Amino acid sequence: MVLTGQVAIVTGGGQGIGKAIALRLAAEGADIGIIDVNGKKGEATSKEIRDLNRRAAATAADVANFQAVEAAMNEVVGALGRLDVLVNNAGIEKRAPFLEITPDDWQRQLDVNLSGTFYCSQVAAREMAKRRYGRIVNLSSVAGLIGPIDLAAYGAAKAGIIGLTRAAALDLADFGITVNAIAPGPIETELMLGAWSAEALRERPQHGAIARFGTVDEIAHTALFLASPKSGFITGITLSIDGGALAAGAYMVEKYRRRKAAATE
Which of 93, 115, 135, 261 is 20 to 30 A removed from 109 (C-alpha atoms)? Predict the structure, then answer.
């Protein structure tokens, strides 16, 4: 188990991708701290981690609030004794056409997705620097790499995370801390399955080179690698886990057209 003896904090670890990452890191030997705005869901994940015979601590906090982040981090480190890995997964998304985005919605998405990632990273890095070792893994999105429809605030925040990842990687390298990002494409989660129409769930996978949704376990596997000691010469990168959609670029439109034509023959 590559993380034996280490402690990892996962924000937004109460459900979806964050929960999958927390359980995967625990399965590889790490004790886990969960910081989630929903305390009940965070504690539920912690119980599953304890069932894996790992220590776990959960605390409720809004990552958009620096003082709350600092208190939550200190609580987890106090309970588990150290900090080696941080996974910045907490995030929100609200769709709206560009002309209809309200200032409050714009600010809230930047506060949670971008500022929250910075706040958690800064507090965690100060702790990691004491031992001159750390791994920070940020969850961005393909929406931060391409122009998303009706997601200007979310896409801007996720693009900001990519820039923050590069800057933090340079600033923190001398403290033995690596900083990398994951940019998922469409991933099959309970929230997505509940929010998308049946038509969207049927059609959207055809918009990638690999014609299916990604899974939370595939994101968790990537996070584990970037969180492990074996990734020590990798820092400042953004790794797209998107089924090849970015690689295809505009050609994906033609690929999709051909698939539709073939299905009707």
Answer: 135
